[in-house]
């Protein structure tokens, strides 16, 4: 008889872990030790659930690479004792965290499922229960005693996405996330339907490798009509700056003014890596397709292709943290490491 999958549920903070005190009306942290008592539906799942919480839950607006390392450490320390992991996290920065963990946790052969909610778990109309129950079910999926999902993903409002392909688009609706350039991995309806043809290919049996060194000497610059050259120079001249995500128009287009291009070129010559990503919610950078992006290509700007800004900035921090040689950096960034770009 096959044993039930063991799932570790880690609460880091966020709305999903809050309940309303009906006397005062204030929100307080849910007691996850009493999870099965409060959500009896979980008993119907064919798995064993254990819970763990950050000693001091954090609002996701305060997330930093230090907390990413903390989450990665919990997974690393418990990896051999569990078959899947569900990370409860605030929705505001969930796409950043899911992207970061996809680079940090290498050689995965188990699911890491991020989820959260728009309303607290104790609210009458909460989305927390469905998100939590289905995220645990996804983490429990097995096929011939092997995990069906073997990557970092994000479950929200009936859809399972690759974590590093997601973007939060709404602060009000339950369907708060989209994956603009990649299909969902699974959809929850009457049946839980997994799109196996879009899952990451199963890795060879290698030991889990956890990388925690991220370099935060980076910045995101959004191009806009009338962008000020002095401001641009001030940002690019910041001490210890090593990398820039440049959010451009359309398929990677930007001003062709001499001041703009020469300022970027000078920064690149000084060793700063500049990555071109599109401001559009969907689509890909294609430098050279239009005249307004040809100059960027010529001065050595890196193409972010169809990567999201969230995945781009975390990938930039990750590669800088590994001291990748300058001559290899562009090729590595433009290569898909864990399904983050096409």
Automatic annotation (TrEMBL):
SUPFAM superfamilies: Glutaminase/Asparaginase. Its EC number is 3.5.1.1. Gene3D superfamilies: 3.40.50.40, L-asparaginase, N-terminal domain. GO terms for molecular function: asparaginase activity. It comes from the Bacteria. Residues 217-333 form the Asparaginase/glutaminase C-terminal domain. The keyword Iron does not apply. It is an enzyme of class 3 (hydrolase). GO terms for biological process: aspartate family amino acid metabolic process. InterPro entries: AsnA_fam, Asp/glu_Ase-like_sf, Asparaginase/glutaminase-like, Asparaginase/glutaminase_AS1, Asparaginase_C, L-asparaginase_C, L-asparaginase_I, L-asparaginase_N. Residues 6-197 form the L-asparaginase N-terminal domain. The active site is at residue 15. Pfam families: Asparaginase, Asparaginase_C. Keywords: Hydrolase. PROSITE patterns: ASN_GLN_ASE_1, ASN_GLN_ASE_3. Belongs to the asparaginase 1 family. This is asparaginase.
């Amino acid at each position: 008889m096959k044993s039930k999958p063991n799932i570790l549920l880690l609460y880091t903070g966020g709305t999903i872990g809050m309940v309303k005190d009906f006397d005062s009306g204030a929100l307080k942290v849910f007691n996850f030790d009493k999870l099965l008592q409060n959500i009896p539906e979980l008993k119907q799942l064919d798995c064993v659930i254990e819970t763990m919480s950050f000693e001091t839950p954090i609002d996701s607006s305060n997330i930093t690479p230090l907390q990413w390392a903390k989450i990665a450490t919990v997974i690393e320390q418990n990896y051999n004792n569990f078959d899947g992991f569900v990370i409860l996290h605030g929705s505001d920065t969930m796409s950043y965290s899911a992207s970061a963990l996809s680079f940090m946790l290498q050689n995965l052969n188990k699911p890491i499922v991020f989820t959260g909610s728009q309303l607290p778990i104790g609210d009458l109309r909460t989305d927390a229960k469905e998100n939590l129950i289905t995220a645990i079910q996804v983490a429990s999926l097995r096929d011939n005693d092997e995990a069906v999902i073997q990557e970092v993903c994000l479950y929200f409002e009936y859809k399972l996405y690759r974590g590093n392909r997601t973007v939060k688009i709404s602060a009000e609706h339950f369907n708060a996330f989209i994956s603009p350039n990649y299909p969902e991995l699974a959809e929850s309806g009457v049946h839980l339907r997994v799109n196996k043809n879009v899952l990451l290919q199963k890795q060879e049996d290698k030991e889990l490798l956890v990388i925690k060194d991220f370099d935060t000497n980076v910045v995101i610059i959004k191009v806009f009509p009338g962008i000020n050259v002095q401001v641009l120079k001030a940002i690019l001249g910041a001490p210890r700056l090593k990398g820039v995500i440049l959010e451009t128009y359309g398929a990677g287009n930007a001003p062709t003014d001499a001041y703009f291009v020469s300022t970027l070129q000078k920064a690149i010559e000084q060793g700063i890596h500049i990555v071109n990503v599109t401001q559009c919610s969907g689509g890909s950078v294609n430098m050279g397709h239009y005249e307004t992006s040809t100059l960027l290509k010529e001065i050595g700007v890196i193409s972010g292709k169809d990567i999201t800004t969230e995945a781009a900035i975390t990938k930039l921090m990750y590669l800088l943290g590994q001291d990748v040689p300058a001559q290899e950096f562009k090729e590595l960034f433009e290569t898909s490491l864990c399904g983050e770009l096409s």
